User: What shape does this take?
Amino acid sequence: MASVPADLVIVANRLPVDRITGPDGEPMWRASPGGLVTAIEPVLRANRGVWIGWPGAVTGAVTGGSEAGMEPFEHEGLQLDPIALSAEEIEGFYEGFSNATLWPLYHDVVAKPEFHREWWEAYVAVNRRFAEHAADRAAKNAMVWVHDYQLQLVPQMLRELRPDLRIGFFLHIPFPPAELFQQLPWRRQILEGLLGADLVGFQLPGGAQNFVRLVRQRVGHKTHRDLVYLPDGRTVRAAAFPISIDVDNFEELARKPEVIARAKEIRDALGNPRKVLLGVDRLDYTKGIHARLRAFGELVAAGELDVEEAVFVQVATPSRERVEQYRVLRDDLDRLVGRINGDYGRIGSPAISYLHASYPREEMAALYRAADVMVVTPYRDGMNLVAKEYVACRYNDDGALILSEFAGAAYELRQAWLVNPYDLNGVKDAIREALHADEKDLARRMRTMRKTIKAADITAWARSFLEEMDIVRSAHGKALLPADKT
Ligand code: ADQ
Assistant: This one.
């Protein structure tokens, strides 16, 4: 496919497709739907935009890292441009600096970040490759939207190559307070990397404030409220754009007769307990899976809950399995679940149903419909889409949400039972209250939360970011066409 210059370029670590090995042994592409692609797809289509990213390590045959079959291609009408990563780059840039340095550092050092100079060098090199690629693909005055913590140096590198571009950056995870960010040996380079953008977006206003304060202290630029004034006359705006989900799509799914039937089947399979509690997460130490299972285990141990009356379903999809801390977490959780089930489960009635599977959206919607209480207890989370998905699926205004104060979603979903996941007694109180809440109380809370998410769905999120980019640097760029809904 010829690479036509694009007016909109999305740059993200991952492409919205996975590279898999087909039945005939040839590599092929499979869509991996996610929130980001749903949000961006309509704008991408309307502008014949291109998405640049890594398609992930090939599953199946060993061809990882090769450039073979990595030319730009079209998948279901989207222009995709893959970047290959070598085995060393995956280790240093992705597993190392992104997931063992930045991820824990940006999540309140819930785990200890590791600082290695070779990982940093890999991070710089891979960021440069992404920036060069974006510079090649972008039309004159195009808009480039860079995503997330893996690519924080791209805005500045890209600006040096292409000063004509409008550049936006969005961070999906929290931006830490200065006291923690300061630990990073390369703190100044990261701040300068981000300052290459015209607009830097965060999930919460607190993230934007942390960033502006750090820029003032560490880089010495003048700032005023959410603006940074650079010596070359440019201004950079830092603001919050809380991400959301495709609310209508989740609600539609939840209303499907097949999904309703499947939700009933799930409850039947669990032995028709009076109450079903649910947790759904990527298996990650930031998600507080341990805290909620311990709280539930203690309630069962104390005889407050009977395993035939109340069961906990915990879905935890393994992720980043080659990073040591993730392997340790998986073993810890296996042990905790085994102990609780061994001590309190009965034949046919385990206290906790623990699943590592990854499900299609329909099954997720059925799980959300089957659950009376959704328990979301991260120690720190940029937003947490699971909490919003649960709310979207509860169209009867029933069901209870227990939500950590430390999830970005708590900023909007104020009517949830908000908890501090470090306070086990507090989590136990919330579980008790949610299990015993009357219908009226549940409906009042759920109705308000549903209104909140309906008013700010994923399309509104993408639109507000792109419109803001238009305003920030309208003097230079072309206006983007509105989203193509067809
Ligand atoms: P994540 O840390 O991945 O995202 P989250 O926001 O909860 O966390 O999103 C997880 C997504 O994966 C949800 O859409 C959920 O439905 C899906 N999912 C989880 N388990 C699944 C399973 N077993 N099968 C199928 N799908 C499953 C990062 C940040 C978040 C931020 C998002 C978006 O860490 O804080 O909300 O980006 O910006």
